[in-house]
Amino acid sequence: MQKVLAYILTPFFYIAFGLCLLIFHPVQWFCHRVFGYSAHGKSVALLNWCLMRSTHFLGTWYSFNNPHEIPTNRPLIIVLNHQSMYDIPPIIWHMRRHHPKFVSKIELGKGIPSVSYNLRHGGSVLIDRKDSKQALTEIAKLGRYIEKHSRSAVIFPEGTRSRTGHPKKFQPTGLKLLMKQAPSALIVPISINNSWKMLRYGKFPNGVGSHITFDVHEPIENTGDLDILVAKTEKTINSGIHSFA
């Protein structure tokens, strides 16, 4: 019965989701070209709020649990497990005061209304996973950027999303590079649960009735041995993952 309902509701979701992307593309362009960085950032935050709201057609709801006071006057390295594309909008919306910038695969840099424009012009970096030299150069550039401007880098060290929610082993090279290039950054581990259920049937239909949670753990100072820091961050994130197939 749930899958039948998913077939009925998914088209309404895709229409709403697609309209958000199409409407906000010229809005982003106008804000970026006419008013600059701050206005562009606000348009991106509002876009992602709308994208979250579009998932309500599927009965999806969100909890973003952030009991910690996270400063806005220093850079952050936000580290998360990765379950689906639906991980992204809540991070952008709820962490908007910290100006999140993403380490994204290069394929997302073209062809997607709103999303591609923001990745190219909003301070994120696009990496070619087949070209390690290019990828590391871009990640290092992002680290220097957040260090200089006190903004935040978002990275999913698993590399690819988990289709079952079960955490994958960290690939630590990119995370370590960010730590080196942004030595004053706080490391903010976040555990995501249930986002994978949005794609439990594949790309169509979407899963229905998913309660997606984001648990923000206590920030970790970027001091000491990098291997120990990465291991501690991975352990902290995995301790908060409790929903998988």
TrEMBL record:
<keyword id="KW-0443">Lipid metabolism</keyword>
<dbReference type="InterPro" id="IPR002123">
    <property type="entry name" value="Plipid/glycerol_acylTrfase"/>
</dbReference>
<keyword id="KW-0808">Transferase</keyword>
<feature type="domain" description="Phospholipid/glycerol acyltransferase">
    <location>
        <begin position="76"/>
        <end position="195"/>
    </location>
</feature>
<comment type="pathway">
    <text>Lipid metabolism.</text>
</comment>
<keyword id="KW-0472">Membrane</keyword>
<dbReference type="GO" id="GO:0006654">
    <property type="term" value="P:phosphatidic acid biosynthetic process"/>
</dbReference>
<feature type="transmembrane region" description="Helical">
    <location>
        <begin position="6"/>
        <end position="24"/>
    </location>
</feature>
<keyword id="KW-0012">Acyltransferase</keyword>
<keyword id="KW-0444">Lipid biosynthesis</keyword>
<keyword id="KW-1133">Transmembrane helix</keyword>
<keyword id="KW-0812">Transmembrane</keyword>
<protein>
    <submittedName>
        <fullName>1-acyl-sn-glycerol-3-phosphate acyltransferase</fullName>
    </submittedName>
</protein>
<dbReference type="GO" id="GO:0003841">
    <property type="term" value="F:1-acylglycerol-3-phosphate O-acyltransferase activity"/>
</dbReference>
<dbReference type="Pfam" id="PF01553">
    <property type="entry name" value="Acyltransferase"/>
</dbReference>
